[in-house]
Design a protein that fits this description.
Length: about 500
Amino acid sequence: MPRKPWRYIISAVAPPDGRGVDGMAIAPALCLGAFWVAGEPGLILIAMLMPLAVLILRPMRGAGLSAPSSQNDLARMHGFLDNVLVDCASGARNSICFAIGIDDTEHLRTKHGSRAFERICEQLADRLEGSVRTGDAIARVDAHRFVACIAAGNSVDLETGLQVAARLQDRMDDPVAIEGLTIYPSVSVGFCLASRVSGSTGEEWLRATLSALDDAQTVGPGGVRAYSTALLDRDSVHAQLRQAAMEALGLGQIRAWFQPQISTETGQITGAEALARWEHPERGTLGPDVFLPVLETAGLMDRLGDVVMQDALSALVRWREAGVDIPEVSVNFSAEQLRNPNLRDRVAWALERHDLAPKDLRIEILETVVAQHPDDIICRTIAALGELGCAVDLDDYGVGHASIAAIRRFGVSRIKIDRSFIMRIDTDAEQRKMLSAILSMAEQLGLDTVGEGVETAGEHALLCQLGCTSVQGYGIAYPMPARDLPGWARQHLSRLPDQISVNQMRGS
């Protein structure tokens, strides 16, 4: 028997038999009874009244028996919340709206597939449906988030919210069995009391609740957060920042800056990594930690990546025209970009537009992306970029736990060792052993290496001794605008032996 679609239930208006036998099942009995009692006129009367009764009663049925659109779901939930707010305002009563979000959704989708993920969501939705009382309301907001509102009561407070949140987590964290596999989901919960809503509408209440959920999920799986005025202030600042960052991207204020990489053997410049910076007209230069999260939330990472790539390729052409040979530029590609099946063609077009070869662009991919997306479209996109002729770097190596097999499958030619493995290597013997093991593995696999975040002369010297191929960091050069790199390069090369510096300045 096909499974009934679950989208939206308001048990406050669902009839007692809403989950039992459908009322239409007694239609034959009604017809027979009417014919028995009143003959043909009775049968005609029933035939006329039955469709009218269905039309009248259908809106009262629990909508979990149908699958209205998400917009209808939220509109009906907004209406329910509006009514609860009115109820709470009319007396000394209170209510709570909860938002429940499935944690690590990207990992679940990648590991088990979209179909299995939807079945996980359905089972959790059923559990939530079974957890509400008559008078409560629940709705599914999107693929992995649900909301529930408890009926107004006289003894509803913050402690009630914490207790209900814990019960919801206990219920929804139970294992899920799908196709012979046992999956252990985790959910975070955010909630907002009606008495803490700054506005007067159900839409504002729901927005505050979802904001509390976002805050809960930032602290890790299984988080619980209550909405507060402090969170309101933070949300206001966040919204303003998001709008400003989106405008800055359109105005060209967010651009690529560049951090040089140098050879540990010769000191020659081996390349430059493109790093996004916001040249704010009032606050000065802002780092990616300020604007990357808001651009990611706004779904603009693909656009940002395209801006950085175009800036990097343009800069490389200008540097060479100025007589400074930078062998290549490195650009970090986000998971959102790598999901685009047309990325290979876009990169090829950008290289052709700037009259550059694929070897002039190095693709940097975070190790966490490689570790979490071993077999999907991301893998195929990276392979296509490698076939185009672009070298592939594995960035922040050591923090994402990518397997050696994954390194080979993705065609990685160089690993960038995370700063956390380089700090204090000149004073910490255990740290030095760990770094030596990474470099030894890379050598056995035929991979080049870059030490990231080099800040001291001691770190630089030890990386040279241990065989790291290249280094970058504040101890070499701070990130700089494209226009400043030629001057830095000339000054850096002037300190090298004459033959090396002349060769690089000539582009040989």
